[in-house]
Design a protein that fits this description.
Blueprint lengths: L15 H13 L5 E5 L7 H16 L4 E5 L3 H7 L2 E6 L2 E7 H6 L4 H7 L2 E14 L2 E17 L5 E3 L9 E13 L2 E7 L4 E6 H7 L6 E6 L5 E4 L1
Parallel strand pairs: 1-2
Antiparallel strand pairs: 3-4, 5-6, 6-12, 7-11, 8-9, 8-11, 9-10
């Protein structure tokens, strides 16, 4: 665990990350048949959390028993889990391999955890109706569908864009959240959508809540699957 130089220290003087290592060692040394980790990375600072997450992944890969991780942080789930079971309003709303759940979320809650835009619509070939807005998807299908659009696939413009995008509509900026080197814009409109752009692109847009904004999404970035 990398704590040889702390062997004689009292528990109260250990850092949060060191305490987490001790807790993990105390559990693993008994070679349990089942390992339950309840928010193992909670209350750690960002740097320590990244380090402990990496170490925990290494230890879990060498653990032969059943591993159950409980977490509210989707980053932990993506880094540590092979399969996920998502609890919503006290019930299982979706479960399966992480890649499958991420590719086809089946509720707004699951989509928010993953960080994507999810809508309910009706498809007729490549034409998809979401509310009163008509979208064009690259893959034809028919019937009631979920419509998934990744925030990084949403382009923002001050004026109606020219060129190839087949899905264009006008909305209004309602919120802007800065996250490290990215910015997430919430745009209300016929289809209310979240767009994620680089901080440089956000500075160039120089937008404020209440500003009008044009949205464009390529048809290749509109993904549909049956409800």
């Amino acid at each position: 665990m990398g704590l040889q130089d702390r062997a004689s220290d009292r528990p109260r003087i250990l850092s949060g990350g060191q305490s987490q290592r001790v807790a993990l060692a105390r559990v693993l040394v008994t070679n349990p048949a089942l390992l339950l980790l309840d928010e193992p990375l909670a209350a750690l600072d960002v740097t320590t959390k990244v380090e402990i997450r990496r170490e925990l992944r290494h230890h879990l890969q060498s653990f032969d028993g059943i591993r159950i991780l409980v977490s509210h942080d989707p980053v932990d789930a993506f880094a540590l889990a092979e399969r996920v079971v998502i609890i919503e309003h006290g019930k299982v709303s979706q479960s399966g391999r992480l890649a499958d759940v991420a590719a086809r979320p089946r509720s707004r809650y699951v989509a928010d955890l993953i960080g994507v835009n999810l809508f309910e619509g009706h498809a007729d070939g490549q034409d998809v109706t979401v509310g009163e807005q008509r979208l064009v998807a690259i893959t034809p299908t028919t019937g009631d569908v979920f419509v998934l659009i990744h925030p990084r696939s949403v382009a923002l413009h001050h004026s109606r864009p020219d060129g190839s995008p087949r899905n264009v509509w006008q909305g209004t900026v309602t919120d802007i959240d800065l996250e490290r080197d990215r910015a997430r814009f919430r745009i209300s409109g016929p289809v209310s959508v979240t767009a994620e752009v680089t901080s440089a692109a956000a500075a160039q847009l120089d937008a404020r809540p209440g500003d009008p904004m044009w949205v464009s999404v390529k048809a290749t970035e509109v993904h549909t699957y049956p409800r």
